[in-house]
Amino acid sequence: MSQHILGVDVGGSGIKGSLVDIKTGALVGDRIRVETPAPANPNMIAEAFAGLIKKIGYKGPIGCGFPAIVQHGVAKSAANIDKSWIGHNIEKEFSEACGNPVKALNDADAAGLAELTFGQGQGVEGVVLLITIGTGLGTAQFVDGTLVPNTEFGHLYLHGRIAEHYCSNRIREEENLSWADWAHRFSEYLRHLERLLTPDLFILGGGVSKEFKDFGHLLKVNTPVKPAKLLNNAGIVGAAVYAGR
Ligand code: BGC
User: Fold this and answer.
1) Whose CA is nearest to atom 10 of ligand 1?
2) pLDDT at 6
3) Where do the domains of the chain lie?
């Protein structure tokens, strides 16, 4: 198999893809983005997905991070995407639309694979928890480097609210929270995970990880917390790594 594989990250607002060198984790060539269509149902997303692949002009295996529970290629939830995805085979839908074999996994699991292979989680033993902070909260758990897929800890309850409705980046923006107020909420979430899972390391990814300097010092939790190294490209890189396995 080639060392260069296409990784795609399907998100609520954009579908992003790039060729990835799966031996180094580097993006090869341009990162291309198309808008996520509305409604974001299987037909519409598959068409946009195929358009992206055509734009890139790629033939070969594709890895795809998808913002839902993904079991054996099938979407099993749809918290931040059209509900009609539930029960749909993502791999079949996208492979047929673009004419290339597609392997799909949860988007946070993809980001976690990238961080464990090339970023902050490299060589870290024990329990590592990556959290992507965006519209929702995505989680990826690793035990001695092995992924435990579809953990969905963003859906734990905190103060009677689903955690991602309490301390995601969307909530920070919608409720106009200061970094201090948001970090207070997010620390409660981290301490909750700490009590349940006894992690050795938290890695924070997603768009907001770029602002770690603004809030990292405000987090109050005993477990070490580090910002993701691959920032916004982690989902693309991890998806490509997954397809190359
Ligand atoms: C979904 C997860 C996803 C996360 C980040 C959550 O709402 O349930 O599957 O990983 O958002 O996109």
Assistant:
1) 138
2) 98
3) 4-109+233-243, 123-228
